[in-house]
Amino acid sequence: MDKKPSIFSQPLSGMEAWVSARNEPAYRAKQVLQWLYQKRVSRFQEMSDLSERLRGELDRSFRLEPLACVRKTGSRDTTQKFLFALGDGNFIESVLIPASPALYGSPSDRKTICVSTQVGCAYGCKFCASGLDGWTRNLDVGEIVEQILRVEALSGEKINNIVFMGMGEPLANYQNVLQAVEIIRAPWGVGIGARHITVSTSGLAPRIRELADQPIQIRLAISLHGATDEVRQKIMPVNRKYNLATLIDACAYYTEKKRQRITFEYILIENVNDGLDQAAELARIAQKLKAKINLIPYNTVHDFSWKRPSQTRQQYFFRALERNGVDATIRREKGHDIDAACGQLRLQTLRDKSFAGSSNLR
Ligand code: SF4
Q: pTM to 2 decimals?
């Protein structure tokens, strides 16, 4: 793997320091960033208003290899999933989700990308394919930012909404995610405002508090999936470390500091967490925090035996929340036919012995 840092890891201040160390004026830093984020070049040689010497220096200092797309799936409803090979041979996934009435905000023109933050995951949530083979490594800042640029290039779509909800626990790669957010928000960078960026966590309570103290207004979503410790523990092993009381306290701190509503994600799994007793507890928690609830009917993962509840059971659960005055939605399905749940494409690929990079799309 190329050991040079990715050019997409560089904030404006980093680029300015880099050009100044080479006795170049500070405005050169903005020129470089314009080539990357506005003109979207893929080679330093294309930066035609920089001197040959500076382009050579850039090439010796930074990596500008685009992420290699080795598989792409698209469903009838236009959800598209991209499998990228990293420089060290690991795989990550990004998902492009078209406008959806229940996915963070207005239904109008949302083009959402679900971004990965780690290779694999240590948290082992029982519904998720990403954690099945454990954690391998954190993504660096450039690998996070570049997913957005590559998906835009490959799909021809302009992304305007980011969710850190792909492979990995974003708050376990805290510093790199925060630095990536800085580049994503910046006018000289990707240029997507903080209110269109959501970090979704399995519930790392201390990190939620740290995030609350950051001076940025990004949105927070919590994978709850159980409204009592007993039920949540069956689905989310992290609940043993940070139980519901601890998590809810951290969420209350976040809500208070940010003056912002958080979202609870709740995957409905038949006879596991879809009983009306859970709905009543969930309503109590949501009311306490004035949180929104996003219900997600379970998406079949081949290695697991759980089932999606019937439409009738889903509706009972939803109505129970509504009766308690909770702002809840059931996510309209996107991409169920291409296994849109995180980690599934990578897992399928790793286990598919016949796959040997034959469908390299770059
Ligand atoms: S849901 Fe998120 S935190 Fe849980 S195992 Fe999957 S990637 Fe990790």
A: 0.91
